Amino acid sequence: MTKSIMIVGVGGQGTLLASRLLGNALLAQGLDVKISEVHGMSQRGGSVVTYVKYGESVDSPIIEEGEADIILSFEQLEAARWLPFLKTTGKMIVNTQCIDPMPVITGAATYPTGIIDSLVAAGANVVAVDALSLALEAGNPKAVNVALIGVMAKATDIPESVWLDTIRATVPEKFLDLNLKAFALGYNQ
Amino acid sequence: MAKLMLGNAAVALGLRDAGCRLVSSYPGTPSTEITENAVKYDSVYCEWAPNEKVALETAAGASLAGARAFAAQKHVGLNVAADPLYTMSYIGVNGGLVVAVADDPGMHSSQNEQDSRHHAEGSKIMMLEPSNSQECYDFTKLAFSLSEDFDTPVLLRLTTRVAHSTSLVESVDDGEVPLKDYVKNPQKNVMMPAMAKVRHVFVEERIQKQIAWAENCPINTIEWNSKKIGVIAAGITYQYAKEALGDQASYLKLGCVYPLPVELIKTFVASCDEVYVLEQLDPVIERHCKSLGLNVIGKEKFTMCGEYSQSMIKKVILGEETSNLSVDLTVPGRPPVLCAGCPHRGLFNALKEIDANIFVSGDIGCYTLGSLAPIGMIDTCICMGASVSSLHGRNKVRPEDAKRSVAVLGDSTFIHSGITGLINIAYNDTNSKVIVLDNSITGMTGHQQNPTTGKRINGDPATAVDLEALAKACGISRVLVVDPYDIPATKAAIAAELDVEAPSLIISRRPCALLKEVKHAPAFKVDAEACVGCKACMKIGCPAISIKDKKSVIDFTQCVGCGMCKPYCPVDAIKEGE
Fold it and tell me: How far apart are the first and last CA of chain A?
């Protein structure tokens, strides 16, 4: 059975590293893995999405509405945007950080309030986490991505040791301590 | 052991393992990472060329000299390279010549949605289309042997979802491929009418041989399941169909999308109750089937626009839909924006301060985003380099507006095809004002070096084009350099230049804020006590600035301390960070 995980956020938030870590951890489990993301224009502060699918054999690399087992959202508004992609039985992990999109900045639109409550009211299984605080606690706001991976790791059936080995193999030496600390803070939420 | 590889990275590994010696490309999403990955292999010489035509001609020269050679570009890049492509079809190859073209169905990062299979048909060049990273690798290697066997360049067609998806790849390095001898042969290599007439006959015969190959080749395969539904598909659409229909359908998967087989398709169609041709964009395979008198279903049930997907296929063919959750909120869109600290923002705001209605002839790059709110300064955007040449055309028919009209394009785009337009401005004399947004890098495609940056693809130092001297050599005597981070000074300098009755080249020079070597100042802060909530700082359209509780705030995770917002504050509430 193919499992589907989506990582969504805002261009520049480090979603690409998160998907690479996830892909490598799944590969270490001996599974077929496909990861799909779009590079280029949408990365410039736009809404970005990465699809990760794994199982015995994966065909399509993309995930569509109602297909994601887990959505890991780096930002609240993006969680609301991508909710329709969650399986009715899926899990939504949301970083509580808010980043205003340009239509909100210019006053053409308003940033909705009570997003987490609305997600719950829609029937989603929601885990909300303040990953920016975790990253700052680990020592650098850029470690938000690995803190969130830590939270998500708990929701997968991949052992913690595989995640730790994957981080060691993927992250450059000089950022390793920071990222291991951020992962642990997320994992032990 | 199998490795997880991006489709584009798998093409690059295929280049190395096929003994390719030379890669020359121009960056373009979604093709860029092929060349960026190929440069990691010592046995493959790689370069960024000034444009796709130069890249393909460079690869053609290496091929005729006896080496296996390669060029990559996005779909619109192949239009630029079409001139050498169509004639290399006649000449053929010496060492194998493979040309990758990456289409962008859905236009994730492109200005049109053209289907490059038409170029294969038009140039009569064989085209292969992989559907995952393993096939990206395998088809790249196969393309070189087909190129040499059939004496033809071979096109490798990728689409965004194949180029930018990661999946498992197993590889075998076939080792070095020796240079073939070079033998002077004008009958084959000099395309003038007498020789080309002979070569055209060869091309037509070659196509017939390739059709015979396509009937029974390892990459056009039938997978029999239920014969109630038959699917003919290629590339990523095959993967979508497999996921949607599983063993409820039989599949004819075409790895070679030009030329198409005849008997193989007839046999498949005859064996199934009903047959769908699933292909994104244009009905190329469908028309082929219908020209053979075959009854297949295609575009009458599927769209010509945008991408296909597994759920679309499931819905149309099986009538099944997936249920999902929906949230009771109005979710504002999040369009891409110029980054915090982007020097282009300074230039656009300086233009806006001069005159918000100034005509801006735009071009292809990050700065195309200057057309979106709140900047909203771009009037037109056609293709690479068109900002310069089309401004000249406008100024010929509306000379009275020339003092309120400019062209804007990046350093890489200017080198790609802006220079010839600038020469036309000087030669055919309009008072055109061309602004080069020189941010020391090719930005939108993810930071590639170019002939103005002083570095080559591998970071080695290189001769840099001197834009000031180049303009003068083209006959543009007025050259001005401004720093877009200093908006007041940029505004004053450009306003004065617009009033001059002569063509000018204005260089707006400041490196991209995302470059590694650019050191950022600490994030700026708004003194909440001093802020009067007038929103003057919002005019600049920086994604790091927003209004919270009627006061301006700067997001420290985004701000790079460029300081462009500071002069906009009438009460000096924006402070440098510590």
Answer: 29
Distance CA B82, CA B5 (A): 30
**Smallest CA–CA separation between A63 and chain B, in Å?**
9
Phi/psi at A178 (5° precision): -55, -50
Instruction: State residue A33 phi and psi, 5-degree precision.
Output: -135, 140
Per-residue burial over A50-88, b = 16 or more CB atoms within 10 Å of its CB, e = otherwise:
bbbbbeeebbbbbbbbbbbbbbbbbbbbbbbbbbbbbbe
Q: Which helix (H) or strand (E) holds B23?
A: strand B22-25
Chain A CB contacts of B369 below 8 Å = 41, 44
Tell me, what's the pLDDT at B353? Answer: 97
Q: Which of B189, B194, B124 lies closest to B155, judged by CA?
A: B124
Are B69 and B63 contacting, i.e. CB atoms less than 8 angstroms apart? yes
Tokens encoding B280: 């994104």
Q: Which domain holds residue A74?
A: 3-187
What crossing angle do the helices spanning B343-354 and B487-498 adopt, rounded to 10°? 50
Q: How many CA atoms lie within 13 A of B101 on its CB side?
A: 31
Question: What 3-state class would DSSP assign to B214?
Answer: helix
Looking at this predicted complex, what is its ipTM? 0.93
DSSP one-letter code for B132: S
Region for residue B88 given its phi and psi (left: phi exceeds 0; alpha: psi -120 to 50; beta: otherwise) = alpha
Taking the whole predicted model, whether its pTM rises above 0.90 is answered as yes
DSSP E strands in chain A: the ranges are 3-10, 32-37, 47-55, 68-73, 86-95, 125-129
Scanning every residue of chain B, which has its alpha carbon at the shortest distance from the alpha carbon of A132? Answer: B557
User: How close, in Å, is residue A96 to chain B by CA atoms?
Assistant: 15
Total domain count, chain A: 1
Contact at 8 Å (CB) between A96 and A130? Answer: yes
Q: Please report the sign of the dihedral spanned by the C-alpha atoms of residue A79, residue A83, residue A88, residue A90.
A: negative
Are A10 and A26 in contact, with CB atoms under 8 Å apart? no
User: Residue B407 is encoded by which pair of tokens?
Assistant: 């062209």
Which amino acid is it at B334? R
Convert the pLDDT of each residue in A65-97 to its tens digit: 999 999 999 999 999 999 999 999 999 999 999
Give the other-Cβ count within 10 Å of B83's Cβ. 12
Q: Residue A125 forms beta bridges with which residues?
A: A91
Which pLDDT band holds residue A11 (cuts at 50, 70, 90)?
confident
B328 close to A122: Cβ distance less than 8 angstroms: yes
Whether B370 and B348 have beta carbons less than 8 Å apart is answered as yes
Q: What is the pLDDT of residues B101-142, one digit of tens each?
A: 999 999 999 999 999 999 999 999 999 999 999 999 999 999
B71 and B89 in contact (C-beta within 8 Å)? no
- Phi, psi dihedral angles at B371 (to 5 degrees): -85, -20
Q: 3-class SS at B548?
A: strand
Query: What is the four-CA torsion angle of B438, B442, B448, B449, rounded to 10 degrees?
Result: -30
Residues 23-42 of chain A with CB under 8 A from chain B are: 23-24, 27, 32-42
Question: What is the average per-residue pLDDT within B532-557?
Answer: 93
**Is residue B552 within 8 Å of residue B535, measured between CB atoms?**
yes
CA distance B574 to chain A (A): 17
> Among candidates A125, A12, A116, A23, which has minimal Cα distance to A68?
A125
CA distances from B518 to A22, A123, B82, B439 (A): 30, 46, 38, 11
Comparing C-alpha atoms, which of B382, B444, B441 is closest to residue B415? Answer: B441
Cβ <8 Å between B332 and A110: yes
The nearest alpha carbon in chain A to B552 belongs to A105
Helix (DSSP H) and strand (DSSP E) numbers for chain B: 20, 22
For residue B448, what is the DSSP state?
B
Position B367, amino acid: Y
Assign residue A151 the CATH number of its domain. Answer: 3.40.920.10
Of B578, B332, B445, the C-alpha closest to B25 is B445
